[in-house]
Design goal:
The protein is built from 14 helices and seven strands. By secondary structure, it is α/β, with parallel strands linked by helices. It has a seven-stranded mixed β-sheet, with helices on both faces. β2, α3 and β3 form a beta-alpha-beta unit. α1 packs across α2, α8 packs across α9 and α12 runs parallel beside α13. It starts with 10 loop residues before the first helix and ends in a 5-residue tail after the last strand.
């Protein structure tokens, strides 16, 4: 069963930004992180001629989305894959004629989904006991338990510092290595307790659950989230047609930084000042549709607390690469 429909973050704004590019017949939207298809359903309703290619690394999400999108089945193609495979996915989509798929929209809703967080068996949540798993794609082998019990202290500290922005990374890593020498760490609550005990008491009194940053870091490492995003974004933008639009929702600064750099790079004039170059070569490929990162308003955060950290950026392709 697909379960209850969750409320997608900034759904109205995402629809308003993408719908103008998706109004034409045969326009294709690639939803790179389909999840429970909340944004996809809103866009399929808003754009009657839209064709959707829904991508997700989580087989459970694909099966749930298949049920949720049943009313639109003739307009939907679902693919179990990581989103850094988008060019190959698009190339494999069947078309009715000789022309390639006309990708007019890209949507990335990054990070862990609400259904993944809400399922204790997945091991993403630090407040419920579960096996240390954290895989978005459960057909892969490496779990959070493999990292926690196998990485040397220095490498574990690097992961916590770089991906969790955890200032007590080395203390936590040393505590983990000490505890796993007694018995392997295999549950979320045991890891959470180890992290809590490793952090100074005065620091634990503010900032929410002290294990939050550690769990974020391990999830990013297990799923190679930042590496996948660095590979995926330029590759996916490369298949977007002129007039097509991209919207990205990021949920922490590390993701948002990668998105910002790529969109700013592609929307900047690449010509060095004062150098005579052909006009076409000096033209940006994209124009930004948002000023900085847009955030949810108070009402949305009140109704959906998980939206609080969302940052939205969008751009439109105005020229193909030379």
């Amino acid at each position: 069963m697909a379960g209850p429909q969750h409320v997608p973050v900034l759904a109205d704004r995402v629809t308003a930004l993408l719908a103008p590019a998706l109004a034409g017949p045969g326009a294709v939207l690639v939803d790179a992180t389909l999840g429970r298809a909340g944004h996809a359903r809103a866009l399929l309703d808003a754009c009657p001629g839209l064709l959707l290619v829904g991508v997700d690394a989580d087989l459970a999400a694909i099966e749930a989305a298949r049920e949720l999108l049943a009313p639109y089945a003739d307009r939907v193609t679902l693919v179990h894959a990581r989103y850094d495979e988008i060019p190959a996915i698009v190339a494999a989509v069947p078309t009715s004629g000789p022309d390639p798929v006309n990708v007019m929209g890209l949507l990335f809703d990054l990070g862990v989904s609400s259904p993944q967080l809400d399922d204790p068996a997945r091991g993403f949540a630090y407040a419920q006991d579960a096996p240390l798993d954290m895989r978005m794609d459960r057909t892969t082998d490496r779990t959070a338990a493999d990292i926690v019990n196998g990485y040397p202290a220095a490498e574990l500290a690097r992961v916590l510092r770089d991906y969790g922005e955890e200032r007590f990374a080395r203390r936590i890593a040393d505590a983990v290595v000490r505890e796993r020498s007694r018995t392997p760490i295999t549950s979320t609550l045991r890891l959470s307790a180890i992290v809590k005990d490793a952090i100074p008491a005065a620091t634990r009194r503010t900032g929410g659950n002290p294990a939050k940053r550690t769990f974020q870091a391990l999830r990013i490492e297990v799923n190679d989230e930042l590496g996948t995003l660095r590979r995926a974004l330029p590759a996916a933008l490369g298949v977007l047609a002129v007039g097509g639009r991209v919207v990205v929702l990021a949920y922490h600064s590390l993701e948002d930084r990668i998105v910002k750099r790529e969109l700013v790079r592609l929307s900047a004039d690449p010509a060095p000042p004062g150098l005579p170059v052909p006009a076409e070569a000096a033209t940006a490929q994209f124009r930004l549709l948002t000023r900085g990162a847009e955030r949810p308003d108070r009402d949305e955060v009140a109704g959906n607390p998980r939206a609080a950290s969302a940052r939205l950026r969008a751009a439109e392709r105005i020229r193909k690469a030379a």
